[in-house]
Amino acid sequence: MKALSFEGSGLEYFKIWIVNILLTIVTLGLYYPWAKVRNHRYFYGNSTLEGRNFEYHATGKQLFIGYLISISLVIIYVIIQNISPIGAFIALGVLFLALPWIVWRSMMFNMRMISFSNVRFSFDGTLGQAYINFLLLPILLLVAIYGPIIGAAFSSILIATSSAFVGILTALLFIACYIFAFYAYAWMKKRNTTYAINGARYGQGRFATTVETKGFAKILLKTIGVSILVTIAAIAIIMAISAMTVGISNISNVFESLEDPEAMQEIMSGGLALAFGLFYLIMIIASFVVLAYSFVRNRAYTYANSTLDNDITFASTLSVKSVTWVMLSNLLLIIISLGFAMPWAKVRMAKLVLENTQADTQLNLDTYVSQQQGKQSALGEQIGEAFDIDVQVAF
């Protein structure tokens, strides 16, 4: 296995980042597409595998067209909202229906703008699958999650005026819907992952994955378990804070005869503030642990079950501990620096992720890349012409 690496530095990226911010402010946001291109080119250009680097080929002009379209749509929506609330609702509905198409075009465009060792990536997933994955399945998931809540609200009247059988039936329906939502989420995760990976190409090479619903279901179940443990820890902290408060109150009764009761009150307030501050800090740490656990486990499972032409396999060696530490320390750095440490935070995370991303090929990497370059040269021009419209509408 060969690990990828990131050769950039926080100081280098800071120079790009600060200029992007200043120019975006001066141009009232119009520079944003060029800023996005500069960011992508820096991170892709500094991502390497065995001395070969990635490249990002989009231009600010290409992204600017889509950026203008998105701004225009927002302005049109605001105008419609002020004229007619019903019209605004219809406009949101149209946008919701168009979302899978937007995601599909964006995936095609973004993949086509990336290359590794002068060989382009591409995406050929179908629009029909995009509508199933990004419209139909999310709707089913929302119905499964919020349907029982709405149903319980309407059935509460029936429960009060009917037999206990109605209440039991409602409770069983509630449980059944959430079990369905659990598996629906895992199934949707599996379909989205399969759609993204199986539709990806490297030159004429094809990515493929064999992830299964039960794999994502197990990860989700374990994530829920971690969340429950976090909740238990939070309850324990709350109980400790309550006990501390009672103890302080009892102590205050002993010192009521002191000449300066206001000083005692300040001590009590400071103690409570410190206790609650520690509580929120622990909750933030616990939340990051849950997020890191879900990210690391899903990534490792997906990489372990994905290949490129059956010749290249992948692995993710990220650990929950390392991801949690980088996330927490990055947050602290950003807060202390008032946001100016953002470039270092992004570089640290990029280094961590890439250095724990591995690829293994049964062929020599130079041999494989040379094969893809030969295949690409025969079809490169036709592919460029066929997908030219993506540049105009992707955003």
Detailed description of the structure:
This protein has 395 residues and is of the alpha+beta class. Among the domains are: 73 residues; 69 residues. Helix content is 75%, strand content 10%. The protein has an 11-stranded antiparallel beta sheet with strand order 1-11-10-9-8-7-6-5-4-3-2. Strand 5 and strand 6 form a beta hairpin. Helix 1 runs antiparallel to helix 2, helix 5 runs antiparallel to helix 6 and helix 8 packs across helix 9. The two termini are 36 Å apart. The C terminus is likely disordered.
What's a quick, concise take on this entry?
Helices cover 75% and strands 10% of the residues. The protein is an alpha+beta fold and 395 residues long.
List the helices and strands and how they pair.
Blueprint: E1 2-3, E2 5-6, H1 10-26, H2 32-45, E3 47-49, E4 52-56, H3 60-83, H4 85-112, E5 114-116, E6 119-123, H5 127-161, H6 164-198, E7 200-202, E8 205-209, H7 213-254, H8 261-304, E9 306-308, E10 312-316, H9 320-336, H10 342-355, E11 357-361, H11 365-386, H12 388-393
Antiparallel strand pairs: 1-11, 2-3, 3-4, 4-5, 5-6, 6-7, 7-8, 8-9, 9-10, 10-11
